[in-house]
């Protein structure tokens, strides 16, 4: 019995020793005195078992190829490789060195494979860790100055990769599809972030830019598809937000604009439920009221939150101007009452919004290009006055059935395809003495589809005529069912005037 017990004890000790040996084999630290010698420091047996690797010293293209193999990633030549297990890579005390050769090949169209190696010192070059989907953590060399295009693209298990403070450049798709990445901190030295740099990073919850960060533009698709993103702190120097820069960020509903903000693309927040815009504390020049962004004295409306659930919105009377793209993409917004002090409607101001009808104040003299383009629910527009110009594609792609000009001292200058509608027959109501002139102007400017419009003379049965009540202004309008409307609709219209009178008109 004693002998048996001793044997069991002996076996247990041996098993424990083997476990320790295995554990030790999974972690490795090496110091390189010469670039390209990593394969001399790690045996064939270790190569596929190491999970944690720390490297000091110079690293070249050959070393990166070896690391990729340890992480179970091929070099793009479709040759099978043994499944390496490398998960954590610490290169903090290492440095990247320019070298020949290639660690990855990429097919470019019908041409031969293009090879990628380290093209300059201190550069995380193109495709360096592309497809290394076993890497969980990477600590880059402290000397790193640039992270090039697609450097970490497709590292689907990467949760942590701190960007070194010396980095000035983050390339296109640099961290795209790093689906486990939790947070991003952008250092002060960064002056360039490429297209789609962090696109489809579906686990990112926070993005923080150093206050002194040099980035001025968040480019197209930079954070597109970051569905877990809840908060973004941009640096005060950011001026532009590119196309779909924060599109499809399903968890992002509050966005704080930086001090230097100038403009955004119409689809910057496409399919992102922004309900509130805020401004940084202490910033002069901006104010936020009810989540809507204005300039400091609220004389200009800058941005309307496109996911706001309200169906209607009244522009404050203090507002004399609305910025380009201010309401672009606001699909829930079906009715808007404009301030009577507004003098022009800028390019793309309401593009792609949910408006069904609109009354343009008499003081508005111009409609910018693409101002209402893509408002595919818009059926009625009424101009209380006579604008001097309507820009290219101003109402392109809408469903306008009626366009009413209450006053037209002169035919407005019309842009190409201003009222070009694919499937809708549009009736224009203009003063009787302008019917033929306006019709000819529409055709001459190619502003309409020649077969899908007609021009009719204004009369009390086709418009609401404010002149008939002297100087009295319209207060409200209702259809035959008693529902309030913002512009004329076909059939009976009941109009309440400021002088207390009620006018009934038939719109044909």
Question: How does this structure look, described?
Answer:
It is a single chain. The protein has 508 residues and is mainly β. It is 10% helix and 26% strand. It has 5 helices and 38 strands. Strands 1, 2, 3, 4 and 8 form a 5-stranded parallel β-sheet that branches. The termini are far apart. Mean pLDDT is 88; it is low at 1-6, 13-25 and 461-471.
- The CA-CA distance between the termini, in Å, is 109 Å
User: Main sheet?
Assistant: 5 strands, parallel
Strand percentage, roughly? 25-35%
The unreliable regions are: 1-6, 13-25, 461-471
Assembly type of the chains comes to single chain
Number of helices: 5
Approximate helicity band: 10-25%
Counting DSSP E segments of at least 2 residues, the number of strands comes to 38
Task: Supply Rg.
Answer: 32 Å
Could you report the average pLDDT, rounded to the nearest whole number? 88
Shape call: elongated
Structural class: mainly beta
